[in-house]
Request: fold
Amino acid sequence: MNAAFIEALNALEKERGVSKDVLISAIEAALISAYRRNYGSSTNVRAEVEKDTGEIHIYASKTVVEKVENPQNEIALTDARKVNALYDIGDVLEEEVKTTGFGRIAAQTAKQVVVQRIREAERGVIYEEYVEKENEVLTAIVHRVEKGNVFVELGKTDGLLAASEVIPGETYETSQRIKVYVLEVRRDNKGPQVLVSRTHPGLVKRLFELEVPEIQSGVVQIKSIAREAGFRTKVAVHSTDPQVDPVGACVGQRGVRVERIVNELHNEKIDIIEWDPDFAIYIAKALSPAKVLMVYINEDEKAAKVIVPDSQLSLAIGKEGQNARLAAKLTGWKIDIKNQTQAEEEMDAVSDEPEYDDDLLPEDGAEE
Reply:
């Protein structure tokens, strides 16, 4: 019996991922509840399960009295001194009690306590497992779609892809496999709640890490990402090895690497540019695919004025300003874009202004 009990604990530990110590603690708590339920006693009770042999012991604390009125809480002085002659009235003796007399209700109570404790332990194990996966990418299976929210299966638990985290225009079918980015893992009475996203820039970063070995090894680094999910993403990359082209590594032979990411992201456009420590060069590259003639920078204000050919202005700004907006997010700079004609007209206007001799200016701010 005891060997079978230990074997069952080992099987539970392996199957549920809950340690034997936690299981034994649950059983001890269940035995205490069963004892109190069976005897209607509020006596201090201690249960002990030996993890190696499976033997069960229950000990009840009883007060030593002259005359016993409540056998569940009291023990006669004469009986106490049979255990130890030093006991006296008022002392507390811990006595082992038999469990063979437990009734059906008490046994049911024990079962409920064990099941509840195992569930709580399982939730704790799952929470600890998934909280370590925050900011990581997981493969999810679509379970159902409800009011724009997508409920997905993540293996040992479920996840919520909120409507606000869904890529615009993307639809989902039951049992469809998708990649999701783990935003946050919360504790909940029903188990851990895993919040996931398809719009977070971190999803793009993790997908590149999965697809590009040079990023995994650290030779190629992702310096910055700017994303408008479902439409366009800009990724700035840098190589620590002069022999490795960071853009080429991310694109892959015949574009196969970036194509897999684009397909996963519902055909979202991805611009991969090479990061540069020179701010002017970096900003010019960030505006790709537009060609840039000149970049004037103000480092104090982190602002740049960019001059592009007349034919490239709409391309540099992008549809509804998207290209310029993403370039600004990517670089962290304010970017003002002018075409060549506009820039020349502004320069001409400045050069046409009359020049003043310093001697003719009012002194000390006095009015003329």
About this structure: The first strand starts at residue 45 and ends at 49. Residues 26 and 117 are 6 Å apart (CA to CA). The longest helix spans residues 104-131.
